[in-house]
Write a structure and sequence with these properties.
The chain is of the alpha+beta class and about 110 residues long. The chain is about 20% helix and about 15% strand. It contains two helices and three strands; from the N terminus they run H-E-E-E-H. The longest helix is centred in the last third of the chain and has 20 residues. The protein binds zinc ion.
Length: about 110
């Protein structure tokens, strides 16, 4: 196995993806049931001068500590976020997204 150059590092992934590239502020994290051990952290831009100040994004962390590259479809800016202002529709979308992730986990080489 060669150096996986396309993997995003945790440090990179926690920087604002919207333009300012400053280190974000950790908001919360959630465990995915499938694939087991996968975690999704929510981060928020903490740079007041950024146009996307307080905008949130998700960082997926695999069980082995790797981060799927941006644009892999696993996670990405503004696909969904949940906070006090999240509408019921957004929450449903987030649940659907989680379900989809779980589906992918089941189809993607689940070991029995
Ligand atoms: Zn920013």
């Amino acid at each position: 196995m060669s150096e996986p150059r396309d993997l995003t590092t945790y440090e990179e992934a926690t920087r604002c993806p919207f333009g300012c590239a400053q280190p974000g502020k950790f908001v919360t994290s959630a465990q995915l049931r499938v694939p087991r051990g996968t975690k999704v952290e929510t981060w928020m831009c903490a740079n007041e001068r950024c146009e996307q100040f307080e905008e949130r994004w998700q960082v997926q962390i695999n069980r082995d500590g790797t981060i799927p590259p941006k644009g892999s479809g696993a996670t990405g800016p503004k696909q969904w976020d949940i906070d006090a202002h999240t509408t019921a529709q957004d929450r449903q979308r987030a649940r659907d997204y989680m379900a989809m992730l779980e589906q992918q986990g089941l189809q993607g080489g689940r070991q029995v």
